[in-house]
Structures are given as C-alpha cells and as structure tokens.
Amino acid sequence: MSYKQIKWMIIILPTLAVGLWEYMRHTFLMPYISMDAGNILSPIFVFLISITLLSRLFRLLEHVQEELNKERAEKASVQARDLIARELHDGIAQSLFLLSVKIDKAESGKSSLSEQERFRDIRKTVHEVNRYVRQSIANLRFPSAIHEPVYEDTMKSRIEHTAKETLVSPRIEWSIPDTVLSTKEKVELLACIREALMNIHKHAQATQVAVSGQGEGQSWQVHIDDNGKGITQNPFDLSDRYGLRIMKERAEELQWGIKIIALERGSRIEINKEADSL
C-alpha cells in the first residue's frame, strides 16, 4: 500500500465507520438501544476503531515514511560519493596523468643512464599514487562497508562509464551476475578492466575492442580483446608497463588468473576466477 493510499484510508475509515454505526443505530437498533446508551457507545466504537484499524494504518505509515527517509539518505550518499569521485578524477587523477606525460618528455631528452633511472623511479611513484587515487575513486563509487547501501549501478554500466573515461568504445557482452561479485571484487575487476582499456588506447592502435564476461557462482571469466598490433613478448615483463604490472598484482592478490594472449589479429587480456580460488 502506498503512502498516499494509507493517508486516505486514515481519513476515510473513521468517517465511514461512524456513519455506518449511526445509520444502523437509528435504523435497526433504536428499539434495543436508547438514545443515551447510543451516545455513550458512539465514542467507545470510535475508540475501538482507532485501536484496531487506525493503529495498524499508522504503523504502516511510519514504516513507509522510514523507507522513504532511508531511500532519500541513500540517494544523497550516492550523489555525494559521485561528486567526490568526479572531483578526484577531474582534479588529482588528470593532474597525475599530465605529470606522467611531462616525465616521459623530460626522460626522452636525457641520455644519462643514471638520470633515466631516476626518471623511471619517479614515474613508478606517480603510477603508484595514480593507482591509489583511482582506487579511492572506485571505492567511492562502490561503497565497501557492510552497512552501506548496495550501489544501484550494474557492472556493465560501470564498464561503459569507464570506457568513456579511457576514450575507448568497446563492444560489451556481460552475463556475470552482479550478486556473485563482492564489493571488493567489483572494485578490483573494474580497475583491471580500466587499466586494460587504457593500455589498449595508448599502445595497441586498435580499431575494435570487446569486453566480455561469462560465468556464475564462484567461477567466471573476463576477456578484453582488441584488433591492434598485437604483442611480441609478455607485456608484464616490460620495465615501463607499470599499469599492467599493477593490474597483475591486483588480480594475484585476489587469487585470480590473469594472462595476455596473442590472437591472430590483436591480443586478449584474460582474467578468470575458478571455484576453488578462495
């Protein structure tokens, strides 16, 4: 029963009950109940209606009001999280990306091995800070505390949003139920997909990208495919691919399998979880 219906029931029920009582008293009960007795019974009758029917309606009204207040609070919390996440992304995350680009330019103009090594260390630090910032953004978008409301957005919608951030337009086929992924798994898996899409945008020179997820329960598999220039060696072994190495660390921390596979045209990043990987 809706909030509006309950209010109308509270207004109408006493009126109908008293009207019905008065009609019956004057039409059928006059020979048996005197006028004075009827006047005494009328407030008693209204009191009994209030105790039985109206008290239940008031409890329903209070419950509905609590649900509405809870929904408003949850919506305000989600909006606040999204606002902070956008500010982090538009401010700190993009500043870190710009700093990384400047470091790359500065490093390319240096020939000393010691200076290049220092630049690599600085770049690694920037990538680490960038990882923490993006982790914070993901945590804001996917509340991790048990008492927090469940975030309404689906993984598929979040992947679509992430793709826009990385300037990649993938074809998405997602059938992994959101309920089989914990909040931490959603955060980490989304971060891995983001890093994979960013790597494709930077290095693969691909014209087609596809993200797919299949599985259910404790066993699932995610593929990020592209038709780019492919790979000639394991990118995880390259010294300058900090993002990929961080992605691998994320997956291994959760005991997921992760590998990069050369396709006939392009490459595939595969992330999987087996039922016994707990």
Automatic annotation (TrEMBL):
Record keywords: ATP-binding, Coiled coil, Kinase, Membrane, Nucleotide-binding, Phosphoprotein, Transferase, Transmembrane, Transmembrane helix, Two-component regulatory system
Transmembrane stretches, start-end: 36-58
GO MF terms, alphabetically ordered: ATP binding; phosphorelay sensor kinase activity; protein dimerization activity
Broad class of enzyme this protein falls into: transferase
Pfam families xref list: HisKA_3
Nucleotide-binding as UniProt keyword: yes
GO cellular component: membrane
The keyword Iron is annotated on this UniProt entry: no
Name recorded for this polypeptide: histidine kinase
